[in-house]
Amino acid sequence: MPIRTALAVLAATTALVLTGLWVGNNVNMLPLDASSNAPTYDALFKVLFSIGTMLFLGIVILLVYSMFRFRRRAGDFSDGLAIEGNLPLEIVWTAIPAVVVLFVGIYSYDIYERMGGMVALNDHSAMDHMAMDHSVQQAQAPGRVWGGIGAAGMDAAPSGPVLPVEVTAMQFAFIFHYPDAQITSGELHVPTGQQVELHMEARDVIHAFWVPQFRLKQDVIPGQPTVLSFTATKAGTYPIVCAELCGPYHGGMRSNVVVHEPEAYDAWLQQNSPIRTTT
Amino acid sequence: MTLANPSDFNGSLQPQGWLRYFSFSLDHKVIGLQYLVCGFLFYLVGGALAGAIRTELATPLSDFMPRDTYNEVLTLHGTVMIFLWIVPVVNGAFGNYLIPFYVGARDMAFPRLNAVAFWLIPPAGILLISSYFIAGAAAQSGWTAYPPLSLTTPAAGQVVWILSVLLLGGSSIFGGINFIATILKLRRPGLKLMQLPMYCWAMLGTSILVVLSTPVLAGTLILLSFDIIAHTGFFNPSLGGNVVVYQHLFWFYSHPAVYIMVLPAFGLVSEILPVHARKPLFGYTTMVYSIMAIVFLGLIVWAHHMFTSGTPPWMRLFFTIATSFIAVPTGIKFFNWLATLWGGKIALNSAMLFSCAFIVNFVFGGITGVALAQVPFDIHVHDTYFVVGHFHYIVYGGTVFVIFSSLYHWYPKFTGRLLNEDLGRLHFLLTFIGFNLCFAPQHWLGLNGMPRRVAEYDPTFTTLNQVSSVGALLMAISTIPLLINVVVTALNGKPAGDNPWNALTPEWLTSSPPPVENWIGEAPLVTEPYGYGQHHGQPQEVKA
Description:
heterodimer; A: alpha+beta; Immunoglobulin-like; 7 helices; 41% helix; B: mainly alpha; Cytochrome C Oxidase, Chain A; two-stranded antiparallel sheet; 16 helices; 1% strand; globular
């Protein structure tokens, strides 16, 4: 390869990589990050967005360049060069996607572990968190709890007690029950900084619990309880969206999660819990 | 061999002229065109349904049609587009027309089975659409028909839907068996497997997927119909059934179904690019191996549709890795196509423009696909408009663009006339702009909180939904120049001659349109279907 071509290829590749990194880091496509899991997710998103931009732009530029540079000139009815393949080149472009995919896979596995996804909920380690909440445990069929982004991985190890909430999904509403405070609510109220564990079950058909600002989603399945754990980090009101087609009013099956600062959450608890009024 | 000798069934009893297209013809070319026209009519139906969806979503409120009608419309849209347009056209239409030419045969291995496979489609399609009018309520549980929703929505419509999909699945299996037999057993003596045009390999791989996975869908839907009709409890949680098992069985077919829609398109592009770039297909051998790698990997990735369904962690990990690795053979194919174009003499006609746009669209959909394969990424965007955008980039931006490209490329073969290039470029421009306007914004919508399959949404999403609806309108308008072009050309088009593109693949080495048994005399032996640049642009010597 002539030195000038080599330099041009090098310069183009560098420009492409820089553009990809710039786009990935500066173009924001995501809503507010309001859970401890969201910044981790956003970091993965930036990596995928950067790599994706590089590959997409690279291929499109090559394609459009070829379409102009090698377009057929008027009156030219000859053929192109009879090149049928090039083994080293083909090995290179088998290796590039393989390396990219391997990197992305390992990186996202790491992210997944940090999100607690690799902790099976009927595993011993996860049981430590769940042992704090006997009432919920007893209410559920033993041994049939699985799935869900699990109770915290290493990063999000809970500092205090876990807040359990029982979630019932039905056509076309979510109902939240706080077993400790004996509150039943149509909205989910949680404090910042405390790990919340949703124990979810569906009455009729499959629903899905999704809070875009938490970057978390878990199907709520009839006959099979699922668990979703998260720690909210920013106070505010965020939508809870049903993400699994559940019937005519699926689009209207929405609620809110209200994230309070811890003091405000205690006040809400005090106001609404029947336990307070009896004591 | 009697299989290869069709003279006993193409006798004088067969209707001649245009009437044969409405008959139980055994000619693979007639059957191919039957698939194509029938599929296109259903594309118009599915497109009208898509128009209804985009009209509903032009405003945040559910105000265009009743909510259960909306669910019927989205169910029918998905089912019609997949089972009545894309699968039959990209497999049945082009497969039936081209495969016998490519292997040097006079017809498919089982011509009667072939005709039966086609004639299952119109009644199944009419049955499906009529369920909206006759059964009172068509299926409303999406094309995925997840129980328990599919057990609780109106039963008649759901049962008709199952029946219709079973018929279409049967048609698909018949076709698959026929293609495998034809490619492996009807090759002209002297023609080796590694000399076949790439579309043969694509159809061989696709047919293996069809034959392995479609029966699983059929079995699953039969069990589902038992649950509905006989109140069994296979998938009914209140009777001890398991709804997640249905999802595993369903996606065991329906993920390979993506490759059943996409692999043949890869094959068709591999035929079109070398002809209009005047260069050999780059890396033939790696292309063949990548098809087979996609077939194998395609069978072991289904649970990536179920990352939020409560699958165990090890399963999520396995399916993430398997899914990501499909990017490797797919990447090879795209780099090989780019290398095919590099240094060519590229004619930027309608066929080429649609094929090049296919590369752009599919690469975009492939990249979002690799992202979706990552469990943590998927957990946020699963079942959102991000996924809707992604798969439309694959099946519309990918396969449908290739179908249009193929139409411009092979129309002269079908009719002996060239489609009008000005109308063709207009069709391309409207489709390309409309398609991207329609589906690109949906990725942002999904990332920011809009779930799929909803008739109403948060008003903050209004603007981008309206952009998307305008794109859909452009796509609808784009069919007008296409229809005018096809009809006007058929009546009064520019004569094409037998081989207007100077192509080397065997279907061009006979008259256009071809005679009943494909060739007068013996079939030519084409050992270098991509030998451009070696024979000075002229079709190579035909060795009879």
